[in-house]
Amino acid sequence: MIFVTVGSQKFPFNRLLKKVDQMVQEGAITEEVLIQTGASDYTPSHCRYQPFYNRALFSEMLGSCTVLITHGGTGTIIDAVKRGKKTIVVPRLSRYGEHVDDHQLELPARFHDMNLVYTCPDVDLLPEILPVVRNHQFDTYQSNTETFLASVDDVLRSYLPETVTDTAVLP
C-alpha cells in the first residue's frame, strides 16, 4: 500500500493529489493508495482518501505502507525515516499557494543528501521516481541524540578515578 499525506496545513496540495490519482488511473500505480488530503479541495477518483486520520490510524498506515509519499513536513519525514520507510518527499511550494514560503525544500534536501529519503520537487517526475525508490537501498537513520549521549557517557567515564573497577553499576 502507498500512503500519501499532505499534512495539516490550511493550504491545499492539489498538485500532488492530482498526480497520484492520475498515476493510478493510468496504471503507473497498481497497488492500493490511501491519501490524507488535508485542506485540499481536489477529490481523488481512483484512491481511498479522507481529509485527516487520527493519530493511531495515521501511525498504523505509516507502519504498513510500502512507500510513503509526503509533503516536506519535519515530523512526518522523521517518523518515516525512523521506521525505515521508503519515502518520497514532495515539498509544498509557495508559487502554487501550497505554503507561505519554500522552507519545505531545505530539510528534504538534507535528508536526500543523507540517503534517507528521495526528494521530488516536480510532481511530473513522480512516475519516474516511484520505481527508483521501490528498488533503492536507503541508509538507516541514526539519531543524533544517541550519538550525543554516547559522547557524554565517554566524557563522564573519563573523569572516573582509575581505581574504579566495578562499572557494572554504571548505566
Automatic annotation (TrEMBL):
Residue ranges of domain Glycosyl transferase family 28 C-terminal in the record: 1-150
PANTHER family given in the database record: GLYCOSYL TRANSFERASE-RELATED (PTHR12867), N-ACETYLGLUCOSAMINYLDIPHOSPHODOLICHOL N-ACETYLGLUCOSAMINYLTRANSFERASE (PTHR12867:SF6)
Organism (species): Schaedlerella arabinosiphila
Listed name of the protein: Beta(1,3)galactosyltransferase EpsH
Coiled coil: none
Subcellular location field: Endoplasmic reticulum
GO molecular function, one term: hexosyltransferase activity
InterPro entries for the chain: Alg13-like (IPR039042), Cps14G-like (IPR048097), Glyco_trans_28_C (IPR007235)
One of the protein's GO biological processes: dolichol-linked oligosaccharide biosynthetic process
Classification lineage: Bacteria, Bacillati, Bacillota, Clostridia, Lachnospirales
Gene3D superfamilies, A to Z: Glycogen Phosphorylase B
Residue ranges of the TM segments: none
Similarity annotation: Belongs to the glycosyltransferase 28 family.
Keywords in alphabetical order: Endoplasmic reticulum, Glycosyltransferase, Transferase
